[in-house]
């Protein structure tokens, strides 16, 4: 077990995150699944051509992680690989009141705006 911990500590990783993104986590996860495991440069090119609205915040976090790797850690962009992309659910904000009946269990007719947190971890190969 100690060998695995030492290997994890020796790996060079860079993290970037975005909080309170105004997209539903379910929709952002579809975009994140499309680029998981790619190199960041090819993932950014793929995200530029995706029609989903959630592609833009994922692309911006990925570009932020690449900037962190280049400026803070001194990694070369050619030697980076996407280690993990996590999309976590954020707070749910009541958007507006809806007047038709939905029953007592479904928020009494309020529409909910879902927010997300995106975390990207890059590793050097």
From TrEMBL:
Coiled coil: none annotated. Signal peptide: none annotated. GO terms for biological process: translation. The keyword Ribonucleoprotein applies. InterPro entries: Ribosomal_uL22, Ribosomal_uL22_bac/org-type, Ribosomal_uL22_sf. Keywords: Ribonucleoprotein, Ribosomal protein, RNA-binding, rRNA-binding. Pfam families: Ribosomal_L22. GO terms for cellular component: large ribosomal subunit. GO terms for molecular function: rRNA binding; structural constituent of ribosome. The keyword Membrane does not apply. Belongs to the universal ribosomal protein uL22 family. This protein binds specifically to 23S rRNA; its binding is stimulated by other ribosomal proteins, e.g., L4, L17, and L20. It is important during the early stages of 50S assembly. It makes multiple contacts with different domains of the 23S rRNA in the assembled 50S subunit and ribosome. Part of the 50S ribosomal subunit. This is 50S ribosomal protein L22.
């Amino acid at each position: 077990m100690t060998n695995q911990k030492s290997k994890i500590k020796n790996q060079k990783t860079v993290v970037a995150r975005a909080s309170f993104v105004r997209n539903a986590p379910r929709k952002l996860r579809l975009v994140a699944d499309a680029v998981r495991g790619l190199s960041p440069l090819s993932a950014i090119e793929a995200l530029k051509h995706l029609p989903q609205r959630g592609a833009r915040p994922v692309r911006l976090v990925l570009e932020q992680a690449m900037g962190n790797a280049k400026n803070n850690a001194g990694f070369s962009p050619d030697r980076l690989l996407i280690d993990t992309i996590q999309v976590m659910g954020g707070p749910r904000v009541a958007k507006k009141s809806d007047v038709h009946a939905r029953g007592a269990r479904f928020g009494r007719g309020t529409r909910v705006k879902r927010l997300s947190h995106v975390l990207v971890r890059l590793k050097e190969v």
